[in-house]
Amino acid sequence: MDTDLISIIVPVYNVEKYIRKCIDSILNQTYINLEIILIDDGSLDNSGKICDEYAKNDKRIIVIHKKNGGLSEARNTGLDIAKGKYVCFIDSDDYVEKDYVEFLYKILIDNRCRMSICSHTVIYENGKKFDLSTYKKEVLDTQTVLERMLYHNGIDLSAWAKLYDIKLFENVRFPIGRLFEDAATTYKLICKCDKIACGQISKYNYMIRNNSITTKDFDLKKMDLIKSTNEMCDFILKKYPSLKNATTRRLVYAHLSTLTQLAKSKKSFPNEQKELMNFINKNKFKVLFNPKAPKRDKVGIVTTMFRLWFF
Q1: CA-CA distance, 79 to 81, in Å (whole number)?
Q2: 151 neighbors 246 (Cβ within 8 angstroms)
Q3: Which of these three, 194, 214, 234, is where a domain ends?
Q4: Residues 264 and 186 placed together within one structural domain of the fold
């Protein structure tokens, strides 16, 4: 079945503890017609050397060493040289099931789609796992995919756990220098498709580390999520005005998520706190009375009605 070349892009930065498990999971794929592009983004540990070691033993592996430019620049570098008809992304501290590529490729080809999505398992350093599989297999139109994504209903914005026709990336790249780069990119790719194959079975293992971007202390760059979400919602509303309630929910979620990280910070950010709280307060009833909005949003909104420490 593995007739088409598929490029796998793996940005690598200071992950010597995890990179072997990631690469091994790719090399053990049941789909073998792969181009494995490892982008060493200026690692200061032995990550780059480990990539070179693997490249000597498998001709499918291409290693690019570059100055540190961040996750977006690394992914873009991989896209610029990828030769596959299809492309997928794997983060270097994550790993995938042995049929990750085959599963995504099969549902994409069988349903004549340009993009496919699978589910994932969230794994914490303490060993806790949350398998998000629903075991549904569906082919969804663009608007339905966007709506489910906006409501976090089985579809998220992550670049990984998806297979793309590489032509979808014509005139689309990840924004350099911005956090939450997936929130600024994935929706554009979805909007280029007329239908998407969704197989909600976990094939990707997403690791949450104590020193990851999402768990680091709050700084002003975390406000990038608000910027990217605003851009996304404006873009979607121009094409699908009926998704107004869904975009409002997603914007409130972005503000709640950012406020959560701010609230945990040892530093004080009064201006940002006020901005976040004002937006949530202004739009709270639109989410509280929206039956499609997740319960966690509603609980979060209610707690913001008290002091920040209570939230």
Answers
A1: 6
A2: yes
A3: 214
A4: no
Tell me: do 158 and 283 sit in the same domain. Answer: no
Q: Is 162 helix (H, G, I), strand (E, B) or coil?
A: strand
Rg, C-alpha atoms of the chain:
20
309 inside domain: no
Q: Which of 292, 189, 175 is nearest to 236 (CA)?
A: 189
DSSP string, 241-258: GGGHHHHHHHHHHHHHHH
pLDDT tens digit at each of 311 positions of the chain: 558 999 999 999 999 999 999 999 999 999 999 999 999 999 999 999 999 999 999 999 999 999 999 999 999 999 999 999 999 999 999 999 999 999 999 999 999 999 999 999 999 988 899 999 999 999 999 999 999 999 999 999 999 999 999 999 999 999 998 889 999 999 999 999 999 999 999 999 999 987 655 556 788 889 999 999 999 999 999 999 999 999 999 999 999 999 998 988 888 899 999 999 999 999 999 999 999 999 999 999 999 988 777 88
Do 75 and 190 reside in the same domain of the chain?
yes
Do 200 and 234 sit in the same domain of this protein?
Answer: no
- As a 3-state breakdown, the chain gives helix, strand, coil percent values, each rounded to 5, of 45, 20, 35
Specify whether the CB–CB gap between 287 and 247 falls below 8 A.
Answer: no
Residue that terminates a domain, selected from 162, 196, 214:
214
Range of the domain at 48: 6-214
Backbone angles phi, psi at 272, to 5 degrees: -70, -40
Structural domain total, the chain: 2
Assigned token pair, 151:
């409501």
CATH number at residue 198: 3.90.550.10
